[in-house]
Amino acid sequence: MGIRIVFMGTGNLALPSFLALCRSTHEVIGLVTQPDRTGRGHHQHINPIKTEAVDRNLPVLQPDSIKTPTAIEELRSLDADLFVVAAYGQILSPDVLAIPRLGTINIHASLLPKYRGATPIHAAILHGDEMTGVTIIEIEPKMDAGPMLGRVATPIGLNETTGELEKRLADLAVPLTLQVIDQIVAGTVTREQQDSTKVIRVRKLSKQDGRIDWSKPNIEIERHIRAMQPWPSPFTELHQTGKPPLRLQVHTARIVSSTDEPSPRVQTEMNAPGNTGAVIATGKDSITVQCGIGMIELVKVQPDGKKPMSTSDFLRGRHLGPDDSFS
Question: Which of 13, 58, 137, 182 has the most CB atoms around its CB within 10 Å?
């Protein structure tokens, strides 16, 4: 038997599950998503899940705060059996959680209780985890603390970025979400309490969190570069004598192990290892940079105001000297 569902979500993690529910035997009767945002140049950011809801003639609620009396009354008027939440971006109050008769479930992109909070996918890559996954929980007022209704795990690829992993987790969440909802409807769902001694909390990130800290080991820097893509975007600044600092986004990098030599050089060694951020050498397709421990090669970069480019294209016409460094 189908039930009436209000979906709450905004990001890429939410879209596949929203579409799957729209195609299921259940009735999606409305979408709650974040207010429209305007970016640089006053361009309106496209919200794909809102676009899909509008195409289906579904009511779309976009309150600045889901806690206001007006927002709560609008939610009540939809007469939902269940709320399904995925990367919505606002904390739901007890008044909101009390509305649907079957409760509220959340699609969370980690293997809870590990990485409660806003950035679980970033955290899994930053910490070098081998595995991650999706957990469906019953929402309680305390963030991500409710009982677990279902989990599915997946290995993290060696070169996977946050954006790539999020897409895989979003697809992985679909069958799990449908299964848990069917179990809720049938009254067969099992609830497993989270182990509070194993909780790891993660915070929201800011643009400044993308800055590369060259004092860290090369292994941690390589993880950081993958974890910060596509947002807040890993970046550094190139310092050259007589020139203003040049901000670079770093799209691809590879670790130089202790037994490796940097890529074949176009120049002789420029800096002796020791100063973190120092340019050690340039190769045909890389720039070798000293880290707190070990070295790393920059392979694909994006100067401010330019498109992403290979390091070989970046170095074309640009000479890096012995005093050049990144910070």
Answer: 137
